[in-house]
Amino acid sequence: MATIEYFAEHSIGDASLRAIATGIGSSHRMLIYHFGSRDGLLAEVVRAVEAQQRETLAILAVDPDAPLLDQSTRFWNEVVEATLTYAPLYFELSAQAMQRNPAPSPCGPT
């Protein structure tokens, strides 16, 4: 998703849907159509990044005959690479949540 890469590079801040849309080469109306709101977009970003990490783990677990140390090292390297890219995004979303401005859960209201 282009939005994830955009946020990883530019952060979320208080960017409006219009600013985000311009940054990813879309329109704010398309973002509203697909995600309903800025919060809906942020929830999808969280869901998509988490899904990427789960896919990485699943792919690395495909070879059960590989030594555990090799599997663990490969997973660690993948996680570190993703962390270098996406950690600021996680911290920013966490900070918003701690300031009572949370992005909605990707699982819906609790």
What's this entry about, in short?
By secondary structure, the protein is mainly α. It is 72% helix and 0% strand.
Q: Please report the number of helical segments.
A: 5
- Given the C-alpha coordinates, what overall shape results? elongated
Structural class: mainly alpha
Can you give the helix content as a percent range?
over 70%
Distance between the termini: 26 Å
Order of helices and strands: HHHHH
What is the overall pLDDT average?
A: 80
- As for the number of domains, it is 1
Low-confidence stretches: none
Beta percentage is under 5%
Largest sheet: none
What's the Cα radius of gyration? 16 Å
Compile the SSE list and pairings.
Blueprint: H1 2-10, H2 17-24, H3 28-35, H4 38-60, H5 68-98
Helix pairs in contact: 2-3, 3-4, 4-5
How would you describe the overall organization of this protein?
With 110 residues, the chain is mainly α. The radius of gyration is 16 Å and the shape is elongated. The two termini are 26 Å apart. The protein is built from 5 helices and no strands. The longest helix has 31 residues, at 68-98. It has one domain. 72% of the residues lie in helices and 0% in strands. The chain has helices spanning 2-10, 17-24, 28-35, 38-60, 68-98.
